Q: What sequence folds into this?
């Protein structure tokens, strides 16, 4: 018996194929969460496996930094990308450069992150490589984001 394979999402006038794929991933994540079948750590490892070597190494390093900064954060995927949550609410996420054909990866923070600093503050950071100083900055941001 032949196994049915899912076709890759196609671009539309409104959304790129990558955006459609991210939306489909979010729907799948929501269904898995509702059914109790989500395994955050396994899901995040599967997301790493889909990345090219450069993005994967960066994502795995950020994973280690985030989990060391606050071990209570839950690993999960968010729109198919590695993410970290507190009480089920996404706090931060990694977006690979290759996924959306950008020149840099991104570490983003949701509106649940406690990064407020006056009336204007950054909620996403471009990452091209990680130095020890960058890693320390990320750890500080994660700790502040969790509150």
A:
């Amino acid at each position: 018996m032949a196994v049915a394979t899912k076709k890759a999402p196609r671009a539309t006038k409104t959304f790129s194929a990558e955006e459609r794929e991210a939306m489909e991933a979010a729907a799948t994540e929501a269904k898995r969460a509702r059914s109790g079948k989500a395994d955050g750590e396994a899901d995040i490892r599967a997301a790493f496996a889909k990345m090219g070597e450069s993005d994967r190494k960066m994502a795995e390093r950020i994973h280690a930094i985030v989990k060391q900064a606050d071990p209570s954060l839950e690993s999960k995927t968010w729109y198919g990308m590695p993410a970290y949550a507190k009480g089920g609410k996404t706090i931060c996420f990694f977006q690979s450069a290759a996924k959306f054909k950008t020149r840099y990866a991104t570490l983003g923070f949701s509106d649940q992150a406690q990064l407020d600093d006056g009336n204007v503050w950054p909620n996403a950071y471009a990452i091209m490589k990680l130095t020890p100083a960058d890693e320390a900055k990320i750890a500080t941001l994660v700790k502040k984001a969790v509150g």
About this structure: The beta strands are 74-78, 81-86, 89-95, 105-109, 124-127. The longest strand covers residues 89-95. Helices lie at 17-35, 40-49, 53-69, 132-146. Residues 17-28+38-146 form a domain with the Aspartate Aminotransferase, domain 1 fold (CATH 3.90.1150.200).
